[in-house]
Each structure stands twice: as C-alpha cells, then as structure tokens.
Amino acid sequence: MTQRDSGSGQNRRWWKEAVVYQIYPRSFNDTDGDGVGDLPGIIEKVDYLDDLGVDVVWLCPVYDSPNADNGYDIRDYRSIMDEFGTMGDWEALLAALHDRDIKLIMDLVVNHTSDEHEWFRRSRERDAEYADYYHWVDGEPDEPPNNWESIFGGSAWTYDERRGEWYLHLFHETQPDLNWRNPRVREDVESMMRWWLKKGIDGFRMDAINLLSKAEGYPDGDPTAGLVGEERFFNGPRLEEYLSGLVDVLDEYDAMTVAEMPNTDVDTAARYLEDGAGLGMIFQSDHMDIDAGPDGIWDPTDWGDLDLPEFKRAMTRWQTGLRGRGWNSVFLGNHDQPRIVSRFGDDEAYRRESATLLATFLLTLSGTPYVYQGDEIGMTNDTFESLDEIDDVETIGSVTDLFERGVADGFEDVRDLVNYWSRDHARTPMQWSAAENAGFTDGDPWLLVNENYREINVETERDHENSIWHHYRRLIDLRGEEDALVYGEYDLLLPDHPSFYAYTRTLGDDELLVVLNWSDGRPTFEAGTVDTADAEVLARNYEEPPTDPAGREFRPYEAVVYRL
Ligand code: TEU
User: Which of 278, 419, 550, 553 is paired with 41 by a 20 to 30 Å CA distance?
Assistant: First the structure.
C-alpha cells in the first residue's frame, strides 16, 4: 500500500481514514426467531450500514462458544457459533460487506480460551502436547498460588480436581489464561490468524491483549491495589515480544489492528504503536475509568460524576500525547460500557441534543472513530430491577464479590451501582422499529428489550431529517471530505471551562474549530486568541446558528463545527 504523506507528518493508511461500526451479534438482528441475533440478520442490514456510511465493521466474537461470557470464551477458533449460523453465512456476510466496500475486522480473543476448548481439555489431562498450554501451579487445594484477583471478581485461580493443580484465569473461571511463554501456543495462535486473514478479513480487534505476559514466578500483587495483581499482569515483561510476533503476521496482509489495552499510559502505548511493536492503534481506558470509584468501577464509593475538565485532560493527554508517535482510536462506548448518551449526555430532556453533541465529538477528534451499534439512534441505558434481569458475567461476579466481602447485602445496596455500570445496558437488543420486540426478533429476546423502543428506533430516526441518525450520517460524510478532521492537529481551547469542550483541528492552512456546549446551561463562548470573524458553519445540531461563535450564547448541548 502506498503511504502518501498526509501533510501532517502522519503516514496515510486506509484505516486512519475509516469510521468503524461495532456489532455485538447477539443483540443486532435475529432472523430465525430464537431470540438471539445471527449472521443472516447482519446480512439483512448491510445496506443499512452502507447508508450510514461506515467503512469498517468490527464483529464481536462469532466463534463456537459455550457463552459464559457471550462468545469471549472460545471453544473453537475455526468454527461459527451454532446460534449465529454457519461458515457459509459468515462467508456471505464478508462478501456482502466487501461488495459495498465495507471492510471486516474480527475479534481476536487469545489471552484465554473457554475451559471447553480442546487445548484446555487435553491440558488438564496432562496430555504431553498440551500440558503446558495454560498457567498451572501446584499447591494445596485450599491455598491459591498468590493473591491475584480476577477482573470479574474473586480469586484469579481455580483448583482443578482432575489435574490436581491450580490454573490462572484473569476473567471468569471458565476462561483459563493461555501460557504465552510456550512457543507452541504462539504458533497455534499465529496459524489461526493466518487462516482467517486468508479467508479475506481486513484485520483484528485484539481482546485484552496487554494481559498476555504475566510476571515470572507469579509473585503476590500489592494488596492495596484496586485490582490486586494488576501490576503483575498488565503490560508484562514479554508483551512487546509477543505483540511483535502478531504484528509480523498482520503486516503480511496490510491488516488493521486495534488492541484493547486497559490501564496503559501514553508513553507505554507509544512503545507498542507504529515505531514500537507496530500495532496500528490501541483502545486505552483513561476516559472510561474517569467516573469509577477509587478502587475501580465496582467500588461503591464516590463514583458516577463526570467532571468535564478532568475528562478533557484525559482525552487531551492522548490526543496530543501520541502526536507523531502513533495513531489514536476514539470511542466513547462499546459492548462493555454504559450507553454513551446516558453516561456522558442527558438521556431525558436533551437526548437528541446531547447524542448529536457526542456524535460531533466522536467524529471530529484525531484518531479512528468507533461507533457502537445503537448509539447512532441514541439508545439509552435500561433499568434493571433485580439480578435476575442481569446476564453479564462481570456484573454478577463483581456483585457477588461485594456480597461475599460484606460490603453490600442484597440488591438494594447495589441497585445504583448495577444500574450505572452493567454491561447489559449496551447489550439490550438493537431497536429497529416500533414493532414488537423493537423488530429485533419474532421470538423471546435473550435479554430484555428496552421499553423505550416505541420512541427510540431506527425507523423513526431515519424518518426525521434532524435526527441523531442523520446527524451521524452527515458527520461521517464530513469526516470523509475534510482531511483536517483526519490528519489535522488537535489543540484544546478553554481547558478549565466547566461547560465548553472546544478545540481546533489544523492541517496546513486549513483550520477547523469545534465548539461543544457539554451542559444543559447557556454559557457564552469566548474565542480567546482564535480569530472567528470569518467562520463558516460545516455541521451543527440546532437550526442555523450565527456564523461567528465569539460572544454568543450556546444552547443546551449545542455542537457546531466551523471552518475558520
Ligand atoms: O474486555 C477486557 C476488559 O478489560 C474488560 O474487563 C472491561 O474493562 C470491563 O468489562 C469494563 O466493564 C474484553 C472484552 O471486551 C469483554 O467483553 C470480555 O468480557 C473480556 O475481554 C474477556 O474476554
């Protein structure tokens, strides 16, 4: 691929100019009436994606899985989950996307497998070939090898009676961690990646990839850490080496990579990006942790308030910090996070205004934007009345942990916490229409459909020219037209302002200004040293605003993109 210079010192690459749409297949569209989304359901909606204007689809796991973690526990990397369809359906989906010039990236989940994967079954039998595929440690059945905690609650170790040893699982006990020190594991993963790349996919999203390398000898972690053991397994000693191996495979195919790396700072990230290990981009988590309590998201103290200046600092650290060192990814939500309009906007009085503001933000920053399914119609968080309504293994594990530690005692004590964080908010079925079950299924949906589907759905959104959906579509188009939105430098204005988030994007002589009133108030914008006299409006979420923003009062959640 030719890499013309973009005029900004950043090499041009196809995936830098792309807008990605993330599909959580279980919740997208069901065609066979079993209440679970499927691949033919996605094929049915390929024109929908084309109309929206996205360039890449990131498909969450569709591999064979017992579904303890909805497909993030893989039983067979080379076959398709029965509920989702067949390999033939998957091939038809790839062809339908490629016909419309939409690329497809798949989820690569290789920190762990399902405990039903053949490798694990043979490993626990001490089969010579697979004995060393996982992290096994000898010891007494009542004393785990160390104090590491699982990200989903409780100890990270489970004693396996069959083998008479402990195995490590940084997630659920049915998700044993692969032993990356074993070169055979790395070879098997690389050959699996090649197998998919040869089928014609355009890249991978790498799941929890900065957990691959664990501290040698499994030393105890700092017992006061939010997640005990975190400094022992995030960004571990051999991570760079393992990533380079994966990148070598991807480079053979000009494939796109986005690597999920929570708990990573900018300087560490730079080591893994372009000039380091060579990853295309990473998903960092600074702005996702901002409203968590001191001990993480399941800490029931002091969580939930969004402090805009702090949020700006977190975003800006990455926007400016990676300049010339690597490419950003930009996301506000995904299948693990609350709905963005409920978390960062106002999902009641100003749902349309705040959802369109968030769209403007997402699509005008430096880095490749990721739109999560349903955000383009402003889908909101749901309300969960009991743990019986929860499917998410993380919510259940974390809440059980709070109960066991005596921090909480019953659902009432955790109601607000669950209703703020549960990953199920993002997983309620896609709302296509006002028909029963939001047009998602003719059967019983696997997870409750949000009751607001009669008002909030694709059909209604597409009928109204000033809707959230049309705003996404226009902003996606604008990003395609304005090189400055892709390759321009980001400079923050008014860092400490409590309501405005404003920045410029500059590429050569071209200077764009984005002004977002991130509040339900009516603050007056002061442009400072930026000359706005000849400003031209490129995008807006209210009727025609005056062209010069300086000295003007902005309406609640008003968002405007100008050319200066
Ligand atoms: O998530 C990894 C991860 O770090 C999550 O724990 C995330 O930070 C948390 O869920 C936020 O609430 C990935 C996948 O995205 C997730 O869906 C999987 O459950 C997990 O890996 C295990 O594969």
Answer: 419
